Amino acid sequence: MTDSDPHRDRLARLRAELAREGLSGFIVPHADEHQSEYLPASAERLAWLTGFTGSAGTAIVLATRAAVFVDGRYTLQVVSEVDADLFAHVHLVETPPSQWLKANAASGDRIGYDPWLMTAAEVRRLEAACAAVGAELVAVAANPVDRIWTDRPAPPTGAVSLHPVALAGETAEEKIARLQALLAEDKADAAVLGQADSIAWTFNLRGADIAHNPVALAWAILPRSGKPTLFIDGRKLSNTVRDALSALADINEPSHLDDALAGLGRDKATVLIEPRATAIAVANAITAAGGTVIDGADPVSLPKARKNATEIAGSHSAHVRDGAAMVRFLAWLDAGAASGTVDELTAADRLAAFRAETAKADGSELVDLSFDTISGAGPNGAIVHYRVSPATNRRLESGSLYLVDSGAQYRDGTTDITRTVAIGTPDAEMRDRFTRVLKGHIAVASARFPAGTTGVMLDAYARRPLWEAGLDFDHGTGHGIGSFLSVHEGPASISKRGNVPFEPGMILSDEPGYYKTGAWGIRIENLILVTPPAAIPGGEREMLGFETLTLCPIDRRLIDTALLTPAEIAWVDAYHARLLPELGHLLADDEQTWLAEATRPLAVLA
Predict the structure, then answer these.
(1) pLDDT at 603 > cutoff 90
(2) pTM of the predicted model, to two decimals?
(3) Which domains does the chain have, with CATH numbers?
């Protein structure tokens, strides 16, 4: 448990501030004005108030009680980070904030929220919950957390760079024209873009405002015809970048956004807004001035998710150097882990170094990691989004499992991979659970499916081998991946809530897992590319499928071949057979020898 004294004081000061404002409570989401998943330090209000450092969560503070809501990825983490005497720990799915408010708010309560940090969809749910008990949801003009956070960091001003057409595969002018054609189809006069990766993709720019995410925090108004307007802090733009962007859009400071939204309203414009990903303050500013807001998907989300041939080629190249770095790391780990001298921090640092070295040897550049490496030994591997620190650092011990989930940002592609490694000899339970996770992974990777198939349909493929043993995992099976953009990208996913059909060119993760609390965790993750429809011999319809992009061996020592079908064994052997031919040129002789041994056919297993 972390020291709760600072958070006790902060909670008390927030309650005093709410009382002065005539509010009975306040909602603190993990969000910024752009609804980013990963936040700049200036927007980490939830962490500052509660101590919770995960990438998804919400707190609700009432006069005499408070709660932090997290999903299944963070149920263990929240226990270690947030004092339960201050904030109850609530499962976000089992008891969502709207349901908790119904049970805990009272008639006459005024529950405040910051309209720049919550979406229209969220506000509608919470308004209904408050109304059900006679309470009121109230938008505040100034966030009370900001008033008491006296040492709040300044907003980021990372430098913006241009993403070349040689890597993007399409000019920004072409993208803007395509998006404007979509607006015409939707009979919208304009769309407001607030998500940083949507803006980065549209204007072929990259930024440095958020750790591990090459995006710039900005806004854009995209009209059905004519020049867009880009609202971005001018300190982020060099003269060269400003000149290039000025040819595409009118450039304005973010402080002018409110006036521009009101201008859309005064013009009686019909404006498309994504209600699940845009601050409700945007819609309110337009409608208050006389405009009309229509709910719809962010027009950028699907074009961005459908990777073009250039982006796909870039992802292939990125995965070759990333796979070679992973092989070098695993060979190093195999040689040293048994000695008992390797710990989580050492391993994570060594993996980052292998990535940098391998990219340089390939004539490329490692721009950044794509997220903080999850380096979990033994029981720490059971914490789904574990973040190693000096306080939690563990040695890799014989007879245990080590889980490493990591990724990289290369200019030609983004990677994300998880491997679970046996340290010493694994026991029968470890091998059983690992093999069931592997069976689920293979079921997804080898699936063939018709057009219109969504992630919720394939999610059960990954879970069935675990369900058959009375087991499951409490996170999605897969998420979308950007092209030198966010490591978590919508709109498609493989999950119980994945309702967007898969289309050729989409890149997703395939990452089922199993976690034994207090003991170890297992996850196997590759990135997979949706392939175009193709005929199946004897079939009546063409079917889409997946191509596995990630290139890295799966630990054979953890595989119980008795649980695999002949087709599953063939899949593993075929996958492993790809690795040495594709990665060997980036490996030293001893690393090639290690890889040849690590990828022997499963039939060779004793």
Answers:
(1) no
(2) 0.94
(3) 5-148 (3.40.350.10), 161-304 (3.40.350.10), 306-601 (3.90.230.10)
